[in-house]
Design a protein that fits this description.
By secondary structure, the chain is α+β, with helices and mostly antiparallel strands. 44% of the residues lie in helices and 23% in strands. The protein has ten helices and eleven strands. It has helices at 106-119, 130-136, 150-167, 170-190, 198-205, 209-220, 224-242, 247-253, 259-270, 274-280, and strands at residues 5-14, 22-31, 37-39, 48-55, 58-62, 65-69, 73-78, 85-87, 96-104, 122-124, 145-149. Strands 10-7-4-9-2-1-11 form a seven-stranded mixed β-sheet, with helices on one face. A hairpin with a 2-residue loop joins β5 (58-62) and β6. α5 (198-205) crosses α6, α7 (224-242) crosses α9 and α7 (224-242) packs across α10. The radius of gyration is 25 Å and the shape is elongated.
Length: 286
Amino acid sequence: MIDWLNWHVRFQTFKPIPALPQPVVVACESRRDTSYHLVGRLRTDAHLVFQYSLSGTGVYEDSTGRYEMPAGSGFLCPTADRDVEYYYPQGAAHTWKFMYFSFIGETAMQMVRQVTRQYGPVFRIPESNEMINRLLSFEAMDEVIQPISAGAGAKLVMDVIAALIESVGPRDAADSAGVLVRRALKLIEDNLTIPLSVGDIADELRISREHLTRVFSEQTGRSPYSYILRRKMLLACRLLKQTTLTMCEISDRLGYEESSRFTRSFKTSIGMTPSRFRKDGQIPFA
């Protein structure tokens, strides 16, 4: 037995059905040095994995951010995703003991993509959870190839994914997304007078532009780009009506390098040119 491998069970699916998820391995390892560092872009396998910390702390990273993985936390991901890395962190003092469950299948890939898109890649689950205990129970079959039918294998994978979804209550999911959007909204309001892109906000929040756009749109009903533009144009409306600033001065104040671009944006958003709005327009409520 390899010193870092605590136990290992491989599944053998009989009469596999390609459309159904298939379990591959459930195992437990104890890692205590930085040689344990898995990088998705260097891997060629098409496996999916749920990895759960039993003690110590590891690190998981993907396009949504960097996550410490203490005991009671787990991550779900495609192992060959180019943005995925998970590893024993530099300077850690304790052994990272974890269990992992890997599985394959196109349907499983679609499910994992959808689950992580909606809930994120990291889940907090107590070790007393029924699904965790079920996976840990395979230790009794250490070094045994476990035969499993196509239906039973698919059910095992589905039960794991369902348990992860159930571990994230509706309030938790909404709160997590809500916090992210509130931080984005504050960044926008604090920076209306400088050039500000969706990428700038994503970088500040240490998430991907795609993740920010998806969550922001789900929570507010509009994309972050359209929200930034609308907030800038509403400020422009107030400046046009409540000050004597010139068009060029307002354009500069809103972070536009060219006043012609400001004029085009204003007309697209408000429906008339800035000069006509100053004369005939009314400040919108929102």
